[in-house]
Design brief:
heterodimer, A: alpha+beta, Alpha-Beta Plaits, 8-stranded mixed sheet, 3-stranded antiparallel sheet, 10 helices, B: alpha/beta, Rossmann fold
Chain lengths: ~400, ~350
């Protein structure tokens, strides 16, 4: 496994160097320049890491050789030079050579320390080898929908939305509700929120899936019930990544009847945008002018189209890679919230937290669950990538 | 601060579902208006008297409130810091619900496209349909960039919405080096002129339009004239023509003139008929074409060859009539306009008529 990893690092390093040559020959004003610079920036840490790894390995190797050497005075002198910063001398190994045992022990210690450094560097470089995911920092279009269960699930859906709002607050992200449909007696049937801030999608992507709730709703006469809410987190795409032609859109507005224009004074400028080629429709009603409702609706539409692109792309990869790529299978039950027993379980990593559910939702714990899921996913991806060689 | 007040206000809203009688606002619309007022008015909150005020917005606070409610936490002591006195809010809602004063007048603001415009009694609140006028202007300039080099006019500017939207459009194009070059050339020829002329007969409108232009940062490019339709512009034209000896001098004319047929004025939704200025609405007897007619007749003299004209009309009945008016318009023995088209508004109503000066 280590050899494959090192080979990939070496590849990244040589790609980086080749890029530098190409960039030197490319005019800064050209389109290609930006692309090359971006690629170069992504490869830089790998390249630097690789070089450092080489250096450390050489040092470690040198020390190891000297530690097991035959006490040759010339080698000892060289060792002194090499270890100048460490101020050590290395003497011959155990089998029958005379030397300074104290220095040898110190050298062994330094060697161990270096090897530790090498190991850590390797690990972080391995993670860096994973294909860079530019959507990690994207803003998020979060959709929530109360799904299975009785009327009461709308309360849970609202709690979930709350939870994400708190989480966003903790992270310093902006949280805007674009649209929501309330239940008849409170709660929300469905809602769409826009969450903006660095790293938003990187974390919230792990919330996509079915959230299952077990509780005794207030109107069920003490009977425990189970329900679900579906959460979908989409990365927001920029206009460059997904461009939508005006001719592909039909803008619908809900004007019941009547003449409109000067005849009517209304503050309702709700807009529904239908993307004709795919049939995806998005509505937005809470902004204060029609133009603003339209731009928000387009933002959401762009995110949905982007997600479709990503899904399409993922299908073209190997089946295993697809599952690991984190493209949400929205039928997957990812987490259960048990209000009765006071327990939150994330099924992907088998993480079981005993906590009063409302307290969990108030904040502080969601981050750690997401981190656990993310780490597990990264490790799986790594294994696959290295297995493929 | 009386926190309960807002709750009471919201309860009152719900009973207004039957306002749909005259096409007025439904309960949902009114509730959203309440939310917007609270968005504007709430500055900070705290859970208890002794605590520090925490800045917040209503949206966040509402969610906190609901969350607290569901978890059974008491909210009775919560306090909110308002930017306006509570009595003002109460008065505002009384006027809204009892007298159907337009929401925009009560908060003195109309949101339109990406602008925030000041409005008040005597000013027609800009409509969402009208937002498209600026898009039509943009398309016209894209089709023929020379149009942006000549001044534009917004007749019956009211709040100044169309004029300001167009001025901002032209301003954003000034970033384009080609346009900037043309303008420098014009300045060298001693032609000092704003890019957009906004005309209105009402002194109230003139005041609001000028103030809004300043607030939106286009006061250097926009000048407001008081007068009837083309009259105040004719003086300007005389000055221009002396220097340039051209036929016409405007690159574009835009207008949303009063177009409601007189007979329909009585049946209007209360917000419109009882509070907005009739001078901005009443199009005259029969088809309500009085103002549109004046503009159609005068535009040919004002526009440069290739200049763009766009008018908002009452829709399905009027648009074809205006189209016909323009097609039949003659100047110097030939058709004054070509390419006379009807465009749908955002609600699918055929509302705008555009044409190009021959």
């Amino acid at each position: 496994m280590q050899e494959v990893a090192e080979r990939k690092l070496a590849e990244a390093h040589s790609r980086y160097q080749a890029l530098q040559d190409t960039i030197a020959d490319t005019s800064p004003a050209s389109e290609a320049y930006q692309r090359l610079m971006k690629e170069s920036a992504a490869l830089l840490p790998l390249s630097e890491g690789y070089q450092q790894l080489q250096r450390l390995q050489k040092e470690a190797q040198g020390l190891a050789e000297l530690a097991s050497g035959e006490g040759d005075s010339e080698l000892a002198a060289l060792a002194e030079e090499e270890l100048a910063g460490l101020q050590q001398q290395v003497r011959a190994a155990a089998a029958g050579t005379a030397g300074d045992s104290e220095l040898a022990a110190l050298a062994e210690e330094e060697l161990a320390g270096l090897q530790q450094q090498v190991a850590e560097l390797r690990e972080s470089l391995l993670l860096a080898l994973l294909p860079p995911d530019s959507s990690e920092d994207a803003n998020v279009v979060l959709e929530l929908r109360a799904s299975v269960g009785g009327e009461w699930v709308v309360g849970f859906a609202e709690d979930l939305l709350d939870m994400y709002r708190s989480f966003a607050g903790e992270q310093g992200w902006r949280f805007e509700v674009l649209e929501s449909k309330s239940g008849d007696s409170g709660g929300i049937k469905s809602a769409t929120a826009l969450i903006s801030g660095p790293g938003a999608f990187g974390q919230l992507r792990w919330e996509s899936g079915v959230h299952r709730v077990t509780m005794v709703p207030s109107n069920s006469q003490g009977k425990m019930q189970t329900g679900t809410t579906v959460v979908i987190a989409l990365p927001e795409a920029s206009e460059v990544e997904v461009s939508i032609a005006d001719t592909d859109l039909r803008i619908e507005t809900c004007r019941a009847s009547g003449k409109g224009g000067q005849h009517v004074n209304t503050t309702d400028s709700a807009v529904r945008v239908v993307h004709l080629p795919t049939g995806i429709a998005v509505s937005c009603q809470n902004e204060r002018s029609q133009g603003q409702n339209r731009s928000q609706a387009l933002r959401v539409l762009r995110a949905k189209l982007y997600e479709m692109e990503l899904q399409k792309h993922a299908r073209e990869q190997s089946a295993q890679r697809k599952a690991a790529a984190g493209n949400a299978n929205t039928n997957e039950r990812i987490r259960s919230y048990n209000y009765q027993d006071g327990r939150v379980v994330d099924h992907r990593v088998g993480l079981n937290i005993n906590i009063d559910v409302p307290r969990f939702m108030e904040g502080g714990r969601l981050g750690e669950v997401i981190a656990a899921v993310k780490l597990a996913h990264q490790q799986q991806l790594l294994q696959e990538m290295l297995a493929e060689g | 601060m009386g926190w309960r007040q807002t709750v009471i206000g919201q309860i009152l809203d719900i009973k207004d579902a039957f306002e749909a009688a005259d096409g007025g606002p439904g309960a949902g619309e009114l509730q959203r208006e309440v939310t917007w007022v609270l968005d504007d008015v709430i500055a900070a909150w705290r859970e208890q008297e002794q605590q520090q005020w925490q800045p917040c917005c209503w949206q966040q606070l509402e969610l906190e409130l609901q969350a607290a409610g569901r978890r059974g936490r008491p909210t009775g002591d919560w306090q909110v810091l308002l930017r306006a006195p509570l009595q003002q809010l109460q008065q505002l809602w009384r006027l809204r619900l009892q007298e159907r004063v337009p929401f925009q007048y009560l908060i003195h603001t109309a949101h339109w496209r990406d602008l925030v415009l000041s409005v008040g009694p005597g000013i027609l609140c800009p409509r969402p349909e009208t937002e498209a006028m600026v898009d039509l202007a943009a398309a016209a300039i894209a089709a023929n960039p020379a149009r942006a080099a000549a001044p534009w006019a917004d007749l019956g500017t009211g709040s100044g919405a169309i004029a300001i939207g167009t001025a901002r459009l032209l301003q954003s194009m000034q970033q384009d080096p080609q346009q900037a070059g043309r303008q420098r050339k014009q300045q060298q020829q001693g032609v000092q002129q704003p890019q957009v002329w906004a005309v209105d007969l009402s002194p109230t409108a003139v005041a609001y339009a000028a103030a809004n232009a300043e607030a939106c940062g286009v006061q250097d490019m926009l000048q407001v004239l008081r007068g009837s339709w083309f009259e105040p512009l004719q003086q300007q034209q005389q000055q221009q023509q002396q220097q340039q000896q051209q036929r016409g001098w405007l690159g574009g004319v835009l207008s949303n003139p009063p177009y409601i047929p007189a007979v329909q004025m009585q049946g209007l939704q209360a917000e419109v008929g009882q509070h907005e200025p009739w001078s901005a609405l009443d199009g005259g007897p029969e088809e309500g074409l009085d103002s549109l007619q004046v503009i159609c007749s005068g535009a040919a003299d004002m526009l440069l060859p290739g200049g763009f004209l766009a008018l908002e009309t009452a829709g399905s009945e009027q648009a074809p009539l205006v189209q016909q008016l323009l097609q039949e318009q003659q100047a110097g023995g030939a058709a004054a306009f070509k390419d006379v088209r009807v465009h749908e508004d955002c609600y699918g109503v055929p509302r705008f008529v555009s044409a190009t000066r021959n």
